[in-house]
Amino acid sequence: MPLVTTKEMFERSMKEHYAIGAFNVNNMEIIQGIIDAAKEENSPVILQASSSAIKYARINYLMKMVEAACEEAPNIPIALHLDHGPDFETCKMCIDAGFTSVMIDGSKYDFEENVAITKKVVDYAHAHGVVVEAELGKLAGIEDDVNVSSDDAMYTDPVQAKEFVERTGCDSLAIAIGTSHGAYKFKGEAKLRFDILAKIKELIPNTPIVLHGASTVIPELVEMCNKYGADIPGAKGVPDEMLHKASVNGVSKINVDTDLRLALTAQIRKVFSEDPGAFDPRKYLTPAREQVKNTVQHKIRNVFSSNNKA
Question: Which letter does DSSP use for residue 37 in this model?
């Protein structure tokens, strides 16, 4: 199956009340782990790359690896998405390269400027059969090119969200209801504003809603990393129960990045710690890939409920 857009994925997810995982990719092993999990769970999946990931992996290599994934999983709907596109030029590059979905992140601008840049991307993308995700509100945290202090974080205003979607024509909207980028999402207890989500869904019921900064920061993976030499104390994410609640209450796409980084790193550290003489990349990347697969399977089956939805 060739790459698809997220249009039909999201239409079904809204009707049947589940979410689709959007997993950030940086290298071959992460892509393979995600696709192996999607195949076993018979789940649609979104592979997404940030501009930093594209710079690292190089766009031609990335496209060929994703092409191979489509060939390996002919019965699985796979979308390729640009995560946090910083400007029109980056979005255009990805559209021209074959991405089927792009995000333009204008959340750092004021409302009118965000509308303007989003509409510019939407016009170009739609002319090329590509869908667009936009963002309204500001998530706190640090991840790749995103760096927003907790003081600058801002919940999405539901009334503004309706106006924004109507004026830009964006296909999906990332909202801020309390999630946060990176491994250190909360100092106290995690709290998501489900009241804001409900109001947004009431005002724009046909617009797919996206949650960024939604890794669980799986405690077992953090513990494994620290056990084998890492120094990431106190990392805390969004509990699975909250993400599942979001999945069945109107969120169509949930982004996962930090959990995949932890999965890969935990197993690599374990191999190096237990076998200091290991230098064959296959020896440490094979279990790392398997841990990524197990992590994605858990998300698909137990958190997003997208298994058997392919």
Answer: H
